[in-house]
Design brief:
The radius of gyration is 21 Å and the shape is globular. α5 runs parallel beside α6. It has a single domain, classed as Metal-dependent hydrolases (TIM Barrel), CATH 3.20.20.140. It has 13 helices and eleven strands. It starts with 7 loop residues before the first strand and ends with a helix. By secondary structure, the chain is α/β, with parallel strands linked by helices. Keywords: Lyase. This is Amidohydrolase family protein. It comes from Streptosporangium amethystogenes subsp. fukuiense.
Protein backbone atom coordinates (compact mmCIF):
# COMPACT_ATOMS: atom_id res chain seq x y z
CA UNK A 1 0.00 0.00 0.00
CA UNK A 2 1.13 3.56 -0.70
CA UNK A 3 0.24 5.91 2.16
CA UNK A 4 -2.63 3.63 3.08
CA UNK A 5 -3.99 3.24 -0.46
CA UNK A 6 -4.24 -0.12 -2.18
CA UNK A 7 -2.22 -0.20 -5.40
CA UNK A 8 -2.94 -2.16 -8.59
CA UNK A 9 -0.63 -1.96 -11.59
CA UNK A 10 -2.96 -1.93 -14.59
CA UNK A 11 -0.20 -2.32 -17.19
CA UNK A 12 2.62 -4.63 -16.22
CA UNK A 13 4.46 -6.92 -18.60
CA UNK A 14 6.15 -10.27 -18.72
CA UNK A 15 9.15 -10.89 -20.94
CA UNK A 16 8.65 -14.21 -22.62
CA UNK A 17 11.66 -16.54 -22.07
CA UNK A 18 13.43 -17.74 -25.19
CA UNK A 19 12.46 -21.35 -24.51
CA UNK A 20 8.73 -20.67 -24.05
CA UNK A 21 7.60 -21.89 -27.45
CA UNK A 22 9.83 -24.93 -27.56
CA UNK A 23 8.22 -26.03 -24.30
CA UNK A 24 4.60 -24.97 -24.81
CA UNK A 25 3.80 -24.94 -28.55
CA UNK A 26 2.09 -27.91 -30.18
CA UNK A 27 4.59 -30.54 -31.43
CA UNK A 28 3.82 -29.87 -35.10
CA UNK A 29 5.28 -26.36 -34.80
CA UNK A 30 8.31 -26.99 -32.59
CA UNK A 31 10.88 -27.47 -35.34
CA UNK A 32 10.30 -23.97 -36.71
CA UNK A 33 8.91 -22.29 -33.60
CA UNK A 34 9.84 -18.88 -32.21
CA UNK A 35 13.18 -19.03 -30.43
CA UNK A 36 16.09 -16.89 -29.32
CA UNK A 37 19.43 -17.33 -31.07
CA UNK A 38 22.59 -16.50 -29.12
CA UNK A 39 24.90 -13.83 -30.56
CA UNK A 40 27.45 -12.56 -28.07
CA UNK A 41 29.04 -10.11 -30.56
CA UNK A 42 25.85 -8.30 -31.60
CA UNK A 43 23.20 -9.37 -29.12
CA UNK A 44 20.75 -12.25 -29.15
CA UNK A 45 18.09 -12.36 -31.88
CA UNK A 46 14.47 -13.43 -31.97
CA UNK A 47 14.03 -15.99 -34.74
CA UNK A 48 10.60 -16.02 -36.40
CA UNK A 49 9.79 -18.70 -38.97
CA UNK A 50 13.50 -19.36 -39.35
CA UNK A 51 14.64 -15.74 -39.87
CA UNK A 52 15.72 -12.93 -37.54
CA UNK A 53 13.01 -10.50 -36.49
CA UNK A 54 12.82 -7.33 -38.60
CA UNK A 55 11.34 -5.25 -35.77
CA UNK A 56 13.34 -6.40 -32.73
CA UNK A 57 16.94 -5.25 -33.06
CA UNK A 58 18.44 -7.05 -30.09
CA UNK A 59 17.42 -9.14 -27.08
CA UNK A 60 19.54 -8.59 -24.00
CA UNK A 61 23.05 -7.26 -23.80
CA UNK A 62 23.83 -6.36 -20.18
CA UNK A 63 23.20 -8.48 -17.08
CA UNK A 64 20.18 -7.35 -15.10
CA UNK A 65 21.06 -5.43 -11.92
CA UNK A 66 18.19 -4.81 -9.49
CA UNK A 67 20.01 -1.72 -8.16
CA UNK A 68 20.06 0.14 -11.49
CA UNK A 69 17.35 1.24 -13.96
CA UNK A 70 16.48 -1.18 -16.75
CA UNK A 71 18.60 -0.67 -19.86
CA UNK A 72 17.34 -0.18 -23.41
CA UNK A 73 19.06 -3.06 -25.18
CA UNK A 74 18.76 -1.51 -28.63
CA UNK A 75 21.01 1.46 -27.76
CA UNK A 76 23.82 -0.56 -26.19
CA UNK A 77 27.32 -0.37 -27.65
CA UNK A 78 29.48 -3.16 -26.27
CA UNK A 79 32.32 -5.39 -27.42
CA UNK A 80 30.37 -8.41 -26.15
CA UNK A 81 26.71 -8.75 -25.23
CA UNK A 82 25.22 -10.67 -22.31
CA UNK A 83 22.58 -13.23 -23.16
CA UNK A 84 18.86 -12.48 -23.31
CA UNK A 85 18.24 -14.80 -20.36
CA UNK A 86 20.68 -13.08 -18.00
CA UNK A 87 19.53 -9.61 -19.11
CA UNK A 88 15.88 -10.08 -18.07
CA UNK A 89 14.66 -9.35 -14.54
CA UNK A 90 13.67 -12.65 -12.88
CA UNK A 91 10.28 -11.05 -12.14
CA UNK A 92 9.66 -10.76 -15.88
CA UNK A 93 9.56 -14.50 -16.51
CA UNK A 94 9.10 -16.18 -13.12
CA UNK A 95 5.85 -15.83 -11.20
CA UNK A 96 7.31 -16.33 -7.72
CA UNK A 97 9.90 -13.61 -8.41
CA UNK A 98 7.16 -11.26 -9.66
CA UNK A 99 5.23 -11.80 -6.44
CA UNK A 100 8.31 -10.80 -4.44
CA UNK A 101 8.68 -7.71 -6.65
CA UNK A 102 5.06 -6.73 -5.94
CA UNK A 103 5.60 -7.12 -2.19
CA UNK A 104 8.84 -5.14 -2.30
CA UNK A 105 7.14 -2.22 -4.05
CA UNK A 106 3.87 -2.23 -2.14
CA UNK A 107 1.70 -3.32 -5.07
CA UNK A 108 -1.25 -5.61 -4.46
CA UNK A 109 -1.78 -6.94 -7.98
CA UNK A 110 -0.72 -6.46 -11.59
CA UNK A 111 -2.25 -7.11 -14.97
CA UNK A 112 0.24 -8.96 -17.19
CA UNK A 113 0.72 -8.14 -20.87
CA UNK A 114 3.26 -9.66 -23.29
CA UNK A 115 6.43 -8.00 -24.52
CA UNK A 116 7.64 -10.02 -27.52
CA UNK A 117 4.01 -10.89 -28.16
CA UNK A 118 3.25 -7.26 -28.94
CA UNK A 119 5.71 -7.36 -31.82
CA UNK A 120 6.23 -10.76 -33.43
CA UNK A 121 2.58 -11.14 -34.58
CA UNK A 122 3.16 -8.09 -36.80
CA UNK A 123 5.84 -10.05 -38.68
CA UNK A 124 3.72 -13.08 -39.61
CA UNK A 125 0.32 -13.71 -41.10
CA UNK A 126 -1.77 -13.27 -37.92
CA UNK A 127 -4.44 -15.60 -39.31
CA UNK A 128 -1.96 -18.43 -39.99
CA UNK A 129 -1.79 -21.73 -38.12
CA UNK A 130 1.69 -20.62 -36.97
CA UNK A 131 0.32 -17.50 -35.25
CA UNK A 132 -2.63 -19.32 -33.70
CA UNK A 133 -0.41 -22.07 -32.29
CA UNK A 134 2.13 -19.64 -30.85
CA UNK A 135 -0.50 -17.45 -29.17
CA UNK A 136 -2.09 -20.52 -27.63
CA UNK A 137 1.34 -21.59 -26.37
CA UNK A 138 1.86 -18.16 -24.81
CA UNK A 139 -1.48 -18.39 -23.01
CA UNK A 140 -0.53 -21.80 -21.57
CA UNK A 141 2.79 -20.45 -20.33
CA UNK A 142 1.20 -17.30 -18.91
CA UNK A 143 -1.37 -19.33 -16.99
CA UNK A 144 1.48 -21.27 -15.37
CA UNK A 145 3.33 -18.01 -14.59
CA UNK A 146 0.25 -16.48 -12.95
CA UNK A 147 -0.49 -19.63 -10.94
CA UNK A 148 2.22 -18.51 -8.48
CA UNK A 149 -0.27 -15.99 -7.05
CA UNK A 150 -3.84 -16.22 -8.41
CA UNK A 151 -5.63 -12.92 -8.00
CA UNK A 152 -2.41 -10.94 -7.70
CA UNK A 153 -0.80 -11.96 -10.97
CA UNK A 154 -3.60 -11.33 -13.48
CA UNK A 155 -2.95 -12.80 -16.95
CA UNK A 156 -4.24 -11.11 -20.13
CA UNK A 157 -4.67 -13.68 -22.90
CA UNK A 158 -3.92 -13.27 -26.62
CA UNK A 159 -5.92 -14.45 -29.63
CA UNK A 160 -5.70 -14.30 -33.42
CA UNK A 161 -8.52 -13.23 -35.74
CA UNK A 162 -8.31 -16.26 -37.99
CA UNK A 163 -10.74 -18.32 -40.10
CA UNK A 164 -9.03 -21.35 -38.56
CA UNK A 165 -10.65 -20.70 -35.19
CA UNK A 166 -14.04 -19.85 -33.82
CA UNK A 167 -13.41 -16.78 -31.72
CA UNK A 168 -16.23 -17.54 -29.32
CA UNK A 169 -14.71 -20.96 -28.62
CA UNK A 170 -11.24 -19.44 -28.12
CA UNK A 171 -12.64 -16.92 -25.64
CA UNK A 172 -14.58 -19.65 -23.84
CA UNK A 173 -11.41 -21.73 -23.56
CA UNK A 174 -9.55 -18.78 -22.02
CA UNK A 175 -12.34 -18.25 -19.51
CA UNK A 176 -12.33 -21.96 -18.64
CA UNK A 177 -8.56 -21.74 -18.07
CA UNK A 178 -9.11 -18.97 -15.50
CA UNK A 179 -8.50 -15.89 -17.64
CA UNK A 180 -10.65 -12.85 -16.88
CA UNK A 181 -8.90 -10.60 -19.39
CA UNK A 182 -8.07 -10.78 -23.09
CA UNK A 183 -6.39 -8.50 -25.61
CA UNK A 184 -8.03 -7.41 -28.84
CA UNK A 185 -7.33 -10.22 -31.34
CA UNK A 186 -4.36 -9.81 -33.66
CA UNK A 187 -5.35 -9.45 -37.27
CA UNK A 188 -8.08 -6.80 -37.00
CA UNK A 189 -7.86 -4.53 -40.04
CA UNK A 190 -10.07 -1.93 -41.64
CA UNK A 191 -13.55 -1.57 -40.18
CA UNK A 192 -14.82 -3.06 -36.94
CA UNK A 193 -17.08 -5.31 -38.96
CA UNK A 194 -19.20 -8.29 -38.02
CA UNK A 195 -16.19 -10.65 -37.95
CA UNK A 196 -15.51 -9.41 -34.43
CA UNK A 197 -19.08 -9.70 -33.18
CA UNK A 198 -18.58 -13.29 -31.92
CA UNK A 199 -15.55 -12.04 -29.98
CA UNK A 200 -17.42 -9.10 -28.40
CA UNK A 201 -20.39 -11.31 -27.58
CA UNK A 202 -18.31 -14.10 -26.05
CA UNK A 203 -16.17 -11.68 -24.02
CA UNK A 204 -19.33 -10.07 -22.67
CA UNK A 205 -20.94 -13.46 -21.95
CA UNK A 206 -17.92 -14.73 -19.99
CA UNK A 207 -17.29 -11.38 -18.29
CA UNK A 208 -13.83 -10.94 -19.82
CA UNK A 209 -12.36 -7.44 -19.97
CA UNK A 210 -11.06 -6.56 -23.45
CA UNK A 211 -7.74 -4.73 -23.38
CA UNK A 212 -6.44 -2.52 -26.17
CA UNK A 213 -2.68 -2.06 -25.85
CA UNK A 214 -1.19 0.72 -27.98
CA UNK A 215 1.26 -1.37 -29.99
CA UNK A 216 -1.36 -3.97 -30.88
CA UNK A 217 -4.29 -1.64 -31.69
CA UNK A 218 -5.04 -1.13 -35.43
CA UNK A 219 -5.16 2.52 -36.46
CA UNK A 220 -8.40 2.29 -38.52
CA UNK A 221 -7.39 5.37 -40.53
CA UNK A 222 -9.08 5.76 -43.92
CA UNK A 223 -6.36 6.86 -46.35
CA UNK A 224 -8.05 7.48 -49.73
CA UNK A 225 -5.49 10.00 -51.02
CA UNK A 226 -2.07 8.99 -52.37
CA UNK A 227 -0.41 12.05 -50.82
CA UNK A 228 1.00 12.38 -47.33
CA UNK A 229 2.85 14.94 -45.25
CA UNK A 230 5.18 13.61 -42.61
CA UNK A 231 8.35 14.42 -40.76
CA UNK A 232 11.55 12.84 -42.09
CA UNK A 233 11.76 9.42 -40.61
CA UNK A 234 9.37 9.98 -38.83
CA UNK A 235 11.49 10.65 -35.78
CA UNK A 236 11.19 9.90 -32.09
CA UNK A 237 9.39 13.18 -31.32
CA UNK A 238 6.80 12.59 -34.04
CA UNK A 239 6.16 9.06 -32.81
CA UNK A 240 6.01 9.97 -29.12
CA UNK A 241 3.58 12.87 -29.67
CA UNK A 242 1.26 10.72 -31.73
CA UNK A 243 1.34 7.51 -29.72
CA UNK A 244 -2.01 8.47 -28.16
CA UNK A 245 -3.69 8.35 -31.58
CA UNK A 246 -4.50 4.61 -31.52
CA UNK A 247 -6.62 5.18 -28.43
CA UNK A 248 -8.47 8.14 -29.92
CA UNK A 249 -9.08 6.41 -33.23
CA UNK A 250 -10.19 3.12 -31.75
CA UNK A 251 -12.53 4.76 -29.26
CA UNK A 252 -14.22 6.60 -32.12
CA UNK A 253 -14.32 3.36 -34.10
CA UNK A 254 -16.01 1.47 -31.27
CA UNK A 255 -18.72 4.12 -30.93
CA UNK A 256 -19.14 4.39 -34.71
CA UNK A 257 -19.64 0.62 -34.95
CA UNK A 258 -22.05 0.88 -31.99
CA UNK A 259 -20.13 -1.82 -30.12
CA UNK A 260 -21.05 -0.40 -26.66
CA UNK A 261 -24.69 -0.18 -27.75
CA UNK A 262 -24.86 -3.74 -29.03
CA UNK A 263 -22.78 -5.19 -26.18
CA UNK A 264 -23.59 -2.87 -23.26
CA UNK A 265 -21.92 -4.94 -20.54
CA UNK A 266 -18.62 -5.27 -22.40
CA UNK A 267 -15.74 -3.66 -20.51
CA UNK A 268 -12.72 -2.22 -22.31
CA UNK A 269 -9.39 -0.87 -21.05
CA UNK A 270 -6.96 1.24 -23.11
CA UNK A 271 -3.23 1.13 -22.34
CA UNK A 272 -0.26 3.35 -23.24
CA UNK A 273 -2.59 5.84 -24.92
CA UNK A 274 -2.96 7.96 -21.73
CA UNK A 275 -6.13 9.78 -20.68
CA UNK A 276 -5.32 13.51 -20.76
CA UNK A 277 -6.69 13.85 -24.31
CA UNK A 278 -10.11 12.54 -23.33
CA UNK A 279 -11.81 15.82 -22.24
CA UNK A 280 -11.00 17.60 -25.53
CA UNK A 281 -11.88 14.46 -27.48
CA UNK A 282 -15.26 14.30 -25.77
CA UNK A 283 -15.99 17.91 -26.71
CA UNK A 284 -15.30 17.14 -30.36
CA UNK A 285 -17.22 13.85 -30.20
CA UNK A 286 -20.23 15.63 -28.71
CA UNK A 287 -20.15 18.23 -31.48
CA UNK A 288 -19.96 15.48 -34.11
CA UNK A 289 -22.81 13.57 -32.49
CA UNK A 290 -25.10 16.63 -32.52
CA UNK A 291 -24.19 17.65 -36.08
CA UNK A 292 -24.75 14.18 -37.51
CA UNK A 293 -28.01 13.75 -35.62
CA UNK A 294 -29.33 17.02 -37.04
CA UNK A 295 -28.59 15.88 -40.60
CA UNK A 296 -30.04 12.41 -40.12
CA UNK A 297 -26.78 10.51 -40.39
CA UNK A 298 -25.75 7.53 -38.29
CA UNK A 299 -24.52 8.03 -34.73
CA UNK A 300 -24.14 5.98 -31.56
CA UNK A 301 -27.38 5.49 -29.62
CA UNK A 302 -26.31 7.92 -26.90
CA UNK A 303 -24.21 11.10 -26.64
CA UNK A 304 -20.49 10.24 -26.26
CA UNK A 305 -20.38 11.44 -22.65
CA UNK A 306 -22.87 8.74 -21.71
CA UNK A 307 -20.35 5.99 -22.41
CA UNK A 308 -17.54 7.65 -20.45
CA UNK A 309 -19.48 9.30 -17.61
CA UNK A 310 -22.58 7.21 -16.98
CA UNK A 311 -21.29 3.69 -17.62
CA UNK A 312 -18.58 1.83 -15.76
CA UNK A 313 -17.25 0.06 -18.84
CA UNK A 314 -14.34 2.16 -20.21
CA UNK A 315 -10.97 2.54 -18.48
CA UNK A 316 -7.67 4.21 -19.45
CA UNK A 317 -4.27 3.59 -17.88
CA UNK A 318 -1.67 6.29 -17.45
CA UNK A 319 1.98 6.49 -16.49
CA UNK A 320 4.27 9.12 -15.03
CA UNK A 321 4.46 12.42 -16.89
CA UNK A 322 0.79 13.14 -17.55
CA UNK A 323 -0.89 16.14 -15.86
CA UNK A 324 -3.64 14.29 -14.04
CA UNK A 325 -4.40 17.28 -11.81
CA UNK A 326 -6.23 18.71 -14.83
CA UNK A 327 -8.46 15.67 -15.29
CA UNK A 328 -12.16 16.58 -14.81
CA UNK A 329 -13.76 14.98 -11.77
CA UNK A 330 -16.29 13.08 -13.89
CA UNK A 331 -13.37 11.13 -15.44
CA UNK A 332 -11.65 10.23 -12.15
CA UNK A 333 -13.40 6.86 -12.19
CA UNK A 334 -11.91 6.00 -15.59
CA UNK A 335 -8.16 6.23 -14.86
CA UNK A 336 -5.77 3.40 -13.91
CA UNK A 337 -2.14 3.48 -12.78
CA UNK A 338 0.42 1.75 -15.02
CA UNK A 339 4.09 1.02 -14.31
CA UNK A 340 4.92 -0.69 -17.64
CA UNK A 341 7.49 -2.75 -15.70
CA UNK A 342 9.90 -4.21 -16.79
CA UNK A 343 10.33 -2.16 -19.97
CA UNK A 344 13.12 0.44 -20.32
CA UNK A 345 12.16 3.86 -19.02
CA UNK A 346 9.69 2.46 -16.48
CA UNK A 347 9.80 3.61 -12.84
CA UNK A 348 12.81 2.07 -11.13
CA UNK A 349 11.22 2.54 -7.71
CA UNK A 350 7.56 3.19 -8.54
CA UNK A 351 6.37 4.20 -5.07
CA UNK A 352 9.09 6.85 -4.74
CA UNK A 353 8.66 8.17 -8.27
CA UNK A 354 4.87 8.42 -8.06
CA UNK A 355 4.93 10.15 -4.63
CA UNK A 356 5.36 13.76 -5.89
CA UNK A 357 2.73 13.22 -8.58
CA UNK A 358 0.20 11.90 -6.09
CA UNK A 359 0.83 14.80 -3.73
CA UNK A 360 -0.44 17.26 -6.34
CA UNK A 361 -3.66 15.37 -7.12
CA UNK A 362 -7.14 16.00 -5.70
CA UNK A 363 -7.69 13.81 -2.64
CA UNK A 364 -10.46 11.77 -4.30
CA UNK A 365 -8.38 11.04 -7.38
CA UNK A 366 -5.51 9.37 -5.50
CA UNK A 367 -7.30 6.22 -4.31
CA UNK A 368 -9.21 5.99 -7.61
CA UNK A 369 -6.00 6.09 -9.64
CA UNK A 370 -3.96 3.84 -7.37
CA UNK A 371 -6.37 0.97 -7.08
CA UNK A 372 -10.06 1.62 -6.56
CA UNK A 373 -10.84 1.76 -10.27
CA UNK A 374 -8.71 -1.26 -11.06
CA UNK A 375 -10.31 -3.28 -8.27
CA UNK A 376 -13.71 -2.67 -9.88
CA UNK A 377 -12.27 -3.84 -13.17
CA UNK A 378 -10.85 -6.98 -11.57
CA UNK A 379 -13.75 -7.83 -9.27
CA UNK A 380 -16.69 -7.76 -11.67
Amino acid sequence: MWNGYQVVDADGHVIEPGTLWEEYVEPAFRENCLRVERDRLDGDRLIIEGRPSRLIRRLGGVPYDPETPITDWNTLRRAEYASFAESCPPASHDGASRLRWLDEHGIEATLLFPSLGLIWPREVDPASPYAVAHLRAYNRWLADYASAAPGRLVPVGQLALSPLVRLEEEVAALAAAGFGHVMLPHGVAGELDARLDPFWASAQHHGLVVHLHKVAVPHLLPLPLPTSVHAPGPGAFFNHVNEILPGQLFLAGLLDARVPDRFPELRLAFHECNIGWLPAWLERAQESFETLRETGRGTPDHPPRHYLHDRDTFFFSTGLGERLDRLPEELHSRVLLATDFPHPGTPFRPQEEWAPVLKGLPAGLRPALLGENAVRLLDK
